[in-house]
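for the writeup, i need someone to sanity check this before i put it in the appendix. the sequnce is what the collaborator sent (i think, or maybe the updated version? ugh). structure was predicted straight from it, no edits. if anything looks off just tell me and ill rerun, i have time this weekend
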Amino acid sequence: MTTRTEADSMGEIQVAGNAYWGAQTQRALGHFAIGTRHLPPHFIHTYGLIKKSAAQVNLDLGILPREKAKWILEAAQEVVEGKWDHQFPLSVFISGSGTQFNMNVNEVIANRAIELSGGIIGSKNPIHPNDDVNKAQSTNDTFPTAMNVAAVWYLKDTLLPELARLKLKLDGLAETYMDVVKLGRTHLQDAVPITLGQEISGWGSQLGHGITHLRQTMDHLSELPIGGTAVGTGLNAPPGFSDGMVGGLSTSLGHTFRRAPNKFEGLAANDAIASTSGALRTLAGSLMKIANDVRWMASGPRCGLGEIHIPENEPGSSIMPGKVNPTQSEAVTQVAVRVYGNDAAIAFAASQGNFELNVYKPVMIDALLDSMEILAAVCKSFRVHCLDGLEPNIQRMGDLMKNSLALVTALNPHIGYDKAAEIAHQAYVDGTSLKETAVALGYTTAAQYDEWVVPENMVGRK
């Protein structure tokens, strides 16, 4: 492989001839050969957008020549579009501020801009990665700004729309099956009747609150510390830079960002990221509950609850012929577990700010975007491959209802709790029906029992 010689403040180093990155990225490749995780493409694209916006603002403020700005803008846009994703080879586990990644972006954009200008890659002429691409910026304000923007961007364009589609599906199922009466369960034990639609409506309500919580986190995420540069004071950032950046990013993404009212907090802490992760964890818990309910109700097919049918997507066993498993529910629950783990990492990392900078930023944004990505994907998979084919097993629901001792609850207003409890206990011991036992004990007539114990009348307002 051919190489070229580049130099930075520490001297010369050989860089791969076909690489757009430069000396600082090359050094980091040797010093941070830690695992195989890279910062996600979405974050790369967001960082490209930050650099593009900065070039435009610097041009507007008259501190970046128009010709240089033109080449930087074009190169940065290519990063936004994902054209150079393969030029970002660094591990997640780098400097806690993300310095090496910021320089990776600066070098790729600078060298691509040099190429567009007709210059020699690696020459830093006519575009310098620090003096031009990083003008009026620091890693310490661009990285947390990119974290917040990336989170808002993914929430707005991907995760929230997917959650809305899932909620719409649940609400539709709830309406469709609002009159399908089934046995309720509390403590995993038989309880009074409920309709399948009522049960599913609870899932939709949970999801709705999760969506609301995520939307609420976007307010804090929308505060951007850009313009704070190294420690929050704004050293080397000209007047108007912060306002220009916020305005440009707002226009680009169709979302209203604003200057962080306190840039010191914006650099030293990442509480907005921690709060968003907490909302994702709560959402994951809701999805865990929904998925577990589905696989419990679909258990069987003959010896479980078997109250609903779900799609048979693939063979479930390598040894038991004909076995089919609730794999979509299992995927949801595994994603939930991973999101809980990501949140634990983010919560601890967010607590570790010291003085003017939190130095756990790369691992936080990697974990946050991982949670968002897998939640969005599994919500779509669960909706398409499970909920779209969910149907009630009416016969099974009816059989279970007839055998339930919990129906005796309907007798409480007529004969009292103690007599109703005696009926349930005796029927269980004797293996008889509630009706037979109630009549035998002389607490009701057959006609009274039929009038008072009607499952359809026990589900309240449907």
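The radius of gyration is 30 Å. The chain has three domains: 3-135, 143-222+262-393, 404-458.
thx in advance!!
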